[in-house]
């Protein structure tokens, strides 16, 4: 099995079904946890030196940050529903509690933080929706916490790739800090499939092929991208959703396409 693939497990006492930490990933910035709660159940947390973006992938919750309460965050029934997720930004050292109002699938996205940012609910209207590509390279992007919104290092985005389409394509990378040309960002992909018995594939590879893995993806898996290009393919019959968390020394998403496949960008 690929060392880049992280499988979900049975819920623990806190409702966690999957966790990636900087320590487990062998990197510095990105942390990612999936929590599943039934109505009335709560999940609590506090990151002293890290900022957090709580994303209601499906379902709704009341979220308290310190003394501030954000009521009925989220509400869509599925990540494949054409609606914004609920999302709340939590600055470092702030304690929070998430109480499910419905069956809840919660993503806890973390990265190094800094003082000067306030707790806030991210409005639906602020999560811009884009259509990228054309033909079988078409996919639908929603920017949850992009680089032009307040945060220290976190970048969060979700993508729906229709069945039979490619995504994160042409293959691109963001693993080298080169001013104005590319930024160095670690990344996690949290994958969901519709119908859930489906599968997809993600390749993660570098120019010199010192990293070159084709990763089988099933519903609920995370793929870690420490470096390299990382295209994704969804087979016929199965729509693919993924939630991306990125972070690095500079909070900008500047990528470089694989030169061998750059021609595809010119014609799509």
Automatic annotation (TrEMBL):
Q: Which InterPro entries match?
A: Deoxy-glucuronate_isom_IolB, KduI/IolB_isomerase, RmlC-like_jellyroll, RmlC_Cupin_sf
Q: Give a yes or no for keyword Isomerase in this entry.
A: yes
What biological-process GO terms show up in the record? inositol catabolic process
Pfam annotation, one family: KduI
**One example GO MF annotation:** glucuronate isomerase activity
Q: Identify the keywords attached in UniProt to this record, alphabetized.
A: Isomerase
Top-rank lineage group of the source organism:
Bacteria
Q: Which SUPFAM superfamilies match?
A: RmlC-like cupins (SSF51182)
Family annotation (NCBIfam families)? myo_inos_iolB (TIGR04378)
> What is this protein called in UniProt?
5-deoxy-glucuronate isomerase
């Amino acid at each position: 099995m690929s060392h880049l693939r992280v499988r979900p497990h049975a819920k623990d006492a806190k409702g966690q079904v999957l966790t990636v930490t900087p320590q487990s990933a062998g990197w510095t910035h990105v942390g990612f946890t999936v929590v599943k709660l039934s109505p009335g159940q709560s999940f609590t947390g506090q990151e002293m030196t890290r900022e957090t973006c709580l994303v209601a992938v499906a379902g709704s919750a009341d979220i308290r940050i310190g003394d501030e309460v954000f009521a009925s965050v989220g509400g869509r029934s599925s990540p494949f529903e054409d609606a914004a997720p609920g999302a709340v930004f939590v600055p470092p050292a702030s304690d929070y509690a998430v109480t499910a109002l419905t069956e809840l699938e919660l993503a806890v996205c973390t990265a190094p933080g800094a003082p000067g940012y306030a707790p806030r609910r991210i409005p639906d209207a602020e999560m811009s929706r884009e259509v990228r590509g054309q033909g079988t390279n078409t996919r639908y992007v929603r920017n949850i916490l992009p680089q032009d919104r307040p945060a220290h290092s976190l970048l969060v985005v979700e993508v729906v790739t229709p069945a039979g389409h490619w995504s994160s394509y042409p293959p691109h990378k963001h693993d080298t800090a080169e001013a104005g040309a590319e930024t160095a960002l670690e990344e996690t992909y949290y994958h969901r499939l519709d119908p859930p018995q489906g599968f997809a594939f993600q390749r993660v590879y570098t120019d010199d092929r010192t990293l070159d893995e084709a990763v089988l993806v099933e519903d609920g898996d995370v793929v870690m991208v420490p470096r390299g290009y990382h295209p994704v393919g969804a087979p016929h019959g199965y729509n693919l959703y993924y939630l991306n968390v990125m972070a690095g020394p500079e909070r900008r998403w500047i990528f470089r396409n694989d030169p061998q496949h750059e021609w595809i960008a010119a014609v799509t």
